[in-house]
Design goal:
alpha/beta; disordered C terminus; disordered N terminus
Amino acid sequence: MVSVSETSVGRKGRGDSSRAATFPTGEWPENAKIVAKQVERSFPKRKLAVHALGPFDFQADDGEFVCLVGPSGCGKSTFLRVVASLIEPTGGAIGIRSNAPSPVATVFQDHSVFPWKTVEENIRFGLDLVSNDHAENSRRARSWAERLGLSDFVDSFPSSLSGGMRQRVAIARALAVEPEVLLMDEPFAALDAQMRLILQEELLRLWQADRRTVLFVTHSLEEAILLGDRILVMSARPGKLVADFKVPFPRPLRSAGPPSSPICMNKCGPFCEKKSIAATPRPIGRNDDELRG
């Protein structure tokens, strides 16, 4: 068991203290990496504030891959930015169990690469912020470029790369700093279907190698089933947690199938029917009778 006060990076909402939840003064939840309690976020407007998120409760365990799905504008990206400390919650409390000063790295929907920097310089950017060892930073940057299939382009500028390659650069930059928590905000949404599948497979391969905690925002239930250990479903604005499902299929036997798939009806039918999301899983490599058994 871990003491919150000793090991968590915690932040309390800046709103009314009567609405701001706090973490228990005792012990941190066992195996938890991220904990959010009654987190809320509002955005001021001229006449009336927009209540975008919450109250939202959340917990992700160490090494877990959690996917967050919900309608547009429900606060998925807002919550991700709260976890990343890019914005402060207006209510509630959030904490990350870590001894590192910056345990989080984020990959956004757009490519977010610096057009005036080469691939290596982009990947090395986070490393250069925390270390002056140029040679070691370059070595690590090139290592991640190789792992993501960018070795032949380390001296190229983003303008000469495809959209999928630019997103690989963004992923490599996030992973190069070896974050304990990886936040991904619809990173494959703007890519074509083929490139999306390729990067999904690469992301799973990288995650299975080091098992860091991942919080992945997506509109696609199919993508969530393929990638996640758990799927959290959010309501319309203000976003609240309405369902929490564990994906019932082991890796790597996951793929996408039609809604009429017997696997869907046996395993995920209630989920798909309840949430009215036309996407279902279909494992591959075995026949349906074996899986039903």
